[in-house]
Specification:
Blueprint (H helix, E strand, L loop, with lengths): L21 E7 L4 E9 L5 E8 L4 H21 L5 E8 L2 H4 L2 H13 L4 E5 L5 H8 L19 H20 L8 E5 L3 H12 L3 E5 L3 H10 L4 E2 L3 H5 L6 E4 L8 H6 L4 E2 L11 H8 L3 E2 L2 H4 L2 H11 L3 H9 L1 H15 L3 H24 L1
Parallel strand pairs: 3-4, 3-5, 6-7, 6-9, 7-8, 9-10, 10-11
Antiparallel strand pairs: 1-2, 2-4
Helix pairs in contact: 1-15, 3-4, 5-6, 5-12, 5-14, 12-13, 14-15
This protein binds nicotinamide-adenine-dinucleotide (NAD).
């Protein structure tokens, strides 16, 4: 196993002023575990965020990912009204090659050593079954299987949250929540995307999909033969008469080329970090396209995980997820009232919640 040897100081790996509370580099020579846990903020409560398991080109890239993703979790959790801070972990390596039970247990012991400052959940490359293994040695684990008292796969709740976000945005933009007769393009029909397609058909929408994986597309067309399939995301963004474009694959879906070609009036999807840089939102707005910030609408999974931590019944947890409708509407209305973009409105609202909590805490200490 290669040891950590970061070529740059941690602070230099962060593109914004370094504001993380704690960053832990983990390695275990027995299991081969090499991981990073980044705790961005515990202002609102213990940090919660998933464990991403993937190969990186360099250790620096992995650290940078953990720093960015953990900051994103602080904002997501704050805006969703959760009393939870933001954290994220990455395990370095191709999960298909290096994921073993002993590695997951070693990882669980490291998470446990933080004493609950960071709680882990599923993310890209980790699944409910992995959380069940980690939970054997770490009680700060969520998204466990229902048989073990967990809430299960977060994707179901994430898809519901995105749908609620779309309905709220439709009300804001078109004056009615209904998606009946609207044409929605879903890019990426994986765990979240294929469930979203189902919800959209139930709402009476027309759905156009694309995915790089044929089996993923087939799963959708087998169930919904009326779905339109296009070759790739480029064809989808240019698709005639698209009302909503829903990026549900990887990050960075929205760049200058997409913006110049997009036919939809609105972008609202599950993928994290959709904008290649914040300026893209302004370019979308200049073309009359409403961007619904990704972290506002894709919080359903973490809302469900928070319900698991609080011991809520699945029904009560589901009601909390549905409230993402109100959160989305509040962000869009705030943006309109202040004459700012929805992304800025969301950030401001999340920051207000975090700083109010920090001042309450410091008043309590003085
Ligand atoms: P997934 O891996 O199950 O699905 C992603 C799908 O996108 C796959 O089917 C993949 O083949 C497809 N894809 C990849 N590149 C593509 C491309 N260039 N064009 C078209 N399709 C492409 O992942 P998921 O869990 O459904 O998550 C989707 C997105 O939502 C991710 O960005 C994830 O970070 C975000 N998200 C997921 C959750 C959750 O609960 N799963 C929660 C919050 C955010």
């Amino acid at each position: 196993m290669t040891a950590f040897s970061l070529k740059a100081p941690l602070t230099a790996l962060d593109s914004t002023p370094f504001e993380h509370e704690q960053v832990v580099l983990l390695q275990d020579s027995v299991s081969g575990l090499k991981a990073i846990i980044a705790i961005h903020s515990t202002a609102l409560g213990p940090a919660v965020g998933g464990t991403r398991f993937q190969a990186y080109d360099s250790d620096e890239e992995a650290v940078r990912d953990a720093l960015n993703l953990s900051r994103g979790m602080s904002y997501k959790n704050a805006l969703a009204g959760l009393d939870l801070g933001g954290g994220k972990a990455v395990i370095i390596g191709d999960p298909a090659q290096v994921k073993t039970e002993s590695l997951l247990l070693a990882y669980g012991r490291f998470v446990a050593s933080l004493g609950g400052r960071y709680m882990t959940a599923c993310d890209v490359g980790t699944y409910v079954a992995d959380m069940d293994v980690i939970a054997r040695v770490c009680r700060w684990t969520v998204s466990r299987s229902p048989e073990l008292g967990g809430a299960g796969d977060p994707s179901t709740a994430t898809a519901v949250g995105v749908l609620q976000g779309m309905r709220a945005a439709a009300l804001h933009r078109w004056g009615a929540t209904s998606l009946q007769g609207r044409t929605v393009g879903v890019a990426g029909v994986g765990k979240v995307g294929h469930l979203l397609v189902e919800h959209l058909f139930n709402e009476g929408a027309r759905v156009v999909v694309t995915d790089v994986r044929e089996d993923a597309v087939r799963r959708v067309t087998d169930k919904f033969p009326q779905v339109t399939v296009v070759a790739d995301t480029e064809a989808l963004t240019r698709f005639d008469s698209l009302d909503i474009y829903a990026p549900c694959a990887l990050g960075g879906a929205l760049n200058e080329t997409v913006v110049s070609a997009i036919t939809a009036e609105m972008v609202c999807g599950a993928a994290n970090n959709q904008l290649v840089h914040p300026g893209v939102e302004k370019q979308l707005a200049d073309r009359g396209v409403l961007y619904v910030p990704d972290y506002v609408v894709n919080a359903g999974g973490v809302v469900q995980a928070a319900g698991e931590l609080r011991g809520l019944t699945p029904r009560r947890s589901a009601l909390q997820v549905e409230r993402l409708f109100d959160t989305t509407l509040a962000v869009l209305e705030h943006a309109k009232a202040e004459g700012i973009l929805p992304g800025e409105a969301a950030d401001r609202m999340a920051e207000q919640r975090m700083s109010a909590s920090k001042s309450r805490r410091s008043r309590g200490r003085s």
